[in-house]
Each structure stands twice: as C-alpha cells, then as structure tokens.
Amino acid sequence: MSETASTSTSAFPFGQEIVWEPDPEAVANSNLKAFMDAHGIDSYEDLQRRSTDDVAWFWDAVLDDLGIEFYKDYDDIVDLSDGIQFPEWCVGGEMNIVHNLLDKWQDTDVEDRVALRYEAEDGSTVSLTYGALNHRVCQCANALRSMGLGKGDRIGLFMPMTPEIVIAFLAIVKIGGVLCPLFSGYGAGAVATRLKGAGAKALFTADGFTRRGKPIHLKETADEALEQCPTVEHVIVHPHLGRDDTPMTEGRDMYWSDAMQGHSGTAETERTAAEDMVMIIYTSGTTGAPKGAVHTHCGFPIKGAQDMYHAMDLKPGETMYWMSDMGWMMGPWLVFGTLAIGATMVLYDGAPDYPAPDRLWQLVEDHEVTHLGISPTLIRALKTYGSDPVESHDLSSLRAVGSTGSPWDPESWQWCFNTVLNGKKPILNYSGGTEISGGILCGNLFKPLKPGAFSGPVPGMAADVVNPSGESVRGEVGELVIRKPWIGMTRSFWQDDQRYLDTYWRRFEDTWVHGDFAAIDEDDLWYILGRSDDTINVAGKRLGPAEVEALLNAHDAVAESAVIGVPHEVKGSEVVAFVVLRPGETADDDLRDELMQQVVAELGKPLRPREILFTDALPKTRNAKVMRRLIRDAYLGKDLGDTSSLEDPGTITAIQQAK
C-alpha cells in the first residue's frame, strides 16, 4: 500500500456490492452507442482506449457528433508544439459558440422548443423558447454594442439565477466579449478582487433576490465593490425584487428595461477565432488569491456539452436541472451544454427545502426534469426529512441523478438510489473542476455501479491513479492524474502562467495532478475520496477526511459531518470531527462515545479522533462544498481569510461554538 493511502481496515470504498446493472435497451438507444457505431467501435473499453490514444481523432469526432458549426474550418484539431501544458485547439478555425447555442436553431423545429424554464422561490415561473431567448439575447447584444462594448471586453455577471442572467451571459458571448461570472453570494471584497483582476468594463447585477422568503440586497454589495474597480464604466441593473430604494449612480447605472428599450431583436454574432477567450471564471484554492481559469469558444462549451451528451446521455428536448450558481462552473456548464445539444435548462432561484422539504422534488415533477444534478451534502440534509417529501411527487420523468461537489457516504448514496430513483436508475457521479470544464470521471449507462462509485473516466479523459512515484496503482488510494490533453482544459490562469504550471504540472513530468485522492477497485469502478491537500497525517499514517466522515454519517443519529486534521507535537496531526445531528437527536457524551467507538472499530486506535464536536451547521459554499479550511482555521482560532464563497457566514460561529 502506498504512503498516500490510509492504513484503515474500512470496507469503503472496497468490497461494496454492485447494486445497479445497465439496461441493455437504454445502452442500445444511447447517444454514446450511436457514436461508437458510427466509428465502428465494438465496446466501451475500446472507445475509452481509442479516445485517449488518439486525442486528435476523438475531439474532431466529438465536434462532428455535436454538430458544431464553424465560420471557417480549422486546419488542425490540436497543436502541441508548446507542450502538453499549452495546447492550441481548432487551429486556424473561426467560430462563436453562440452560433451553435442559438443562431443555428432558428428557422428549425428547435426554434419553438423550450430552452429555459425558470421558477422563483415564490412559485412564479417563466419559460423561453429558443426563438424567444434568441430575440432577447440579440436585444441585449445591441444594447451592449450601443455602450461601446465589444470583442475582448470583460463583463461581469453578479446576479441571481433568473432568465436575465442567461440572456446577459449569451449576449456577452454574442458580441465577442468575455464572461466574468461571479457567485451571487460574494461579499464586496470578493467581487472587487475578481472584477479588478479581470479589468472588467461593465457589470450586470440586480437589486437583490430572496432566500427563504427574506430579501437580500445585491446592488449595495456591487456598489461597494465598484469603488475599487475604476475600469467598470457601465452597470446594468435587473430590478428582480422591484425595490424603490435601489441606489443608482447617474451616468454609470441603467435599469435593465431602460438598457434594452428601443433595441432590435436581431443582431449579428461577432465572428471570433475558435481559441478566442470566452470566459474567465475564478476558482478559490485552499490558499492564495483566487485563480482565474481562462476558457475559449472551442474549449469549455464543447467539453461541457460532450459530458452531457456522451456520459449523461442528455438528448435534444430533454430537461436538465443542476443546482448551482452562475459563479460556480456548473452554472456556465448548464447554459453551454444544454443549448449546444438542443435541450432545456431549468433555473430555480431559491432554497431547495423552502417553503417545505419537498420543494426540490416538486421542481422535478412540475418541470419534468430528466436529469437532476445535486450534491451528496444536499442529499444528507434532505434525507433527514424522511421519504415522504420524495414519495409525494411523481418523479417518473427522471432518467438519472447527477452528483458532484463532495464524496458520497454509502448510506446517503443508497437512500438517494432507492428513495429517489426506486433502485432502478443510475446516479451519475461526476467529478472534475473549473479548470477541467467539466468532468474527469463520471457515471454512465454502460457499466454497473456500486454505492459512491464512478463508472470511470469520461471518454477523452486519460485519467489514472498513481502512487508518489507516479506509477499506476489499483486497489489502493492514490493521486488522480491526467496524462493527455483534452479540449476543455483551461488555457492557463489569467495573467499567471507560472501559477498554472505550479498548480498542476510540477509534480510529474507532462502529467496533470488534480489534487484529489482516488481509487480503482477490483471491478474497475472508480472513487474520489476527497482533496489530497486535505490529507491528515497521523504519526505517519495518511488519512482522507471522507473516510472518517463516511463512518460518522453511517450512524442513525448523524445528518452530516466534517473532519479536519490539526497539529500535534508528537503525531504531526490529529483528527477532529464536527457532527451535525438529525432533527430530534440529542447531543450528549453517550452519543459522542458511541461515535468515537464506531470510528476506532473501523480505523484502529492510532487514528482515534482527538475529539468529536457537535455543531448546528457546517460552513459550505452555495454549491454545497464543505469548507474544511475554514473549519480548521475557526477551530484553531486563526485568521479566516477569504470567506466570500460561504453561503451562510453564520456557520463559522456554529463551528466556533461547537461542543
């Protein structure tokens, strides 16, 4: 066993039983089977091998399979003359991705298909067809051009998940601008850092939004941020709340309706190079300033669409709802991917359990969602309400549940599989990142599944699991790496090539090290076991937090947990666990001892936690990632640094008051 692996005797992830088998009819009718047949590929294993042995053939074939249209065809699909770290894709080609999201669907049957369904927290809804969405995008593009904005200009999006954010998103791309999407829950400092770093010229924002029925003012946060951003000359404000006290700066700010007034619903799409920048999207690391991942027209959108089309089998006319915010990569991923395929996206601007615990399942039923994207953290929270909220709704439209954001524990996975999917449909576990443009690993329709497992790498992703020497390993925990380039990889960090290289490429030669612990079991199923930079080294024994969390979460009294490593003079580190209990459960020393013994029985006395603390909540991002760094710093009394990505800053207090 490698030194990166835990020495525990826990059965997770190894030794689990297969609980879902592929449906031969679904496989035969899948998008990926049609792709394989078109290229004379007999098996999924042969496809995976060919997709990574010959990346030029594969990505050329993907562009064709997705029907991506170019103004000028590319001379070569990829040029690696600057090394694997800096490939150039679609060399010499010209295309604007908006042509493939909207323009090409006009005057076809798709024009009258619903592109976007929106539901607000108060239950009001809006639907836009591909034709209606195109009309509004053109109108917005003309408004932007009238302000002097155009090709290469960076424009921020700091808005709730309403139709207007998608319209603005697509209009920016249509004029050849560069998207700078921002999490709607950011504080002023985080917004300023990103807008200033990108040199943004304009910003779309809103007066505010509601969460759990309470108004949250957004414009004031934007104004405070813009005091530090002199490059921003135009601010377009969507009056989502309908406030009459929204502060407006004369000469800079315009309401949405005023900005759009008088502009035509037809507009030319800017002709751009395939490798022209389409988006700078910032991702927060565990340390240092936010990293601006750079993406291009032929990069992020193609990878996102391919993941949906091949791995998740989203078909034209089907409906995907993935819970996210436009500031996290799954927001742009949803827009780019669904529209490239000719499918329908759902946006919901509200809490998934408000005003009642069945809200998420009501959304699935009402909007006939075929592909639902959640996180294991959300499922752990929702299952505390029991099965009644799920069973009170018709979820027969669902073909699959997608999952991303954090590792599963087996109990929560089984609950979702059996309660939401009736034990018959797959959970498409999905893991990658902002710099990937989607997934490294994903579930699919072709391979059986065990609790918490991934089917394997997405076609085209040359993923592997390696030991500290960079050698492939199976049946043990190692580092997740990628050995070949792919079309969606970030083209670098914005104005920081050195940090990009240091982050991903310095450990092993010509190999991308993603920073996740992973494992491949005896049935060739894959697992993600948490961030490798979260590793806890206890007296030379290396332990992933997810393994301890899975043991704690298996207890009937536990809703969710988070595990951190803290310094110890002799051992190097010790484990500290924070536990959130299910409603009605009592936090006492008897339960604490019971949980402690459960961990010790599985992991052994050397890995016994220093303490187990009960807390009311865990600090999470809006897309439900638990922020272990902040938990560690709060526990140790350190400066918390950037907390801008937290959904609820009050959860830090809950950690500080844990007992």
UniProtKB/TrEMBL annotation:
Which one GO biological process term can you cite for this protein?
acetyl-CoA biosynthetic process
Q: Which residues cross the membrane?
A: 165-186, 330-348
- One Gene Ontology molecular-function label: ATP binding
Domain (AMP-dependent synthetase/ligase) ranges = 109-487
Name by which UniProt lists this protein: acetate--CoA ligase
InterPro entries, per database record = ACAS_N, AMP-bd_C, AMP-bd_C_sf, AMP-binding_CS, AMP-dep_synth/lig_dom, ANL_N_sf
Q: Identify its protein family.
A: Belongs to the ATP-dependent AMP-binding enzyme family.
Organism of origin is Longibacter salinarum
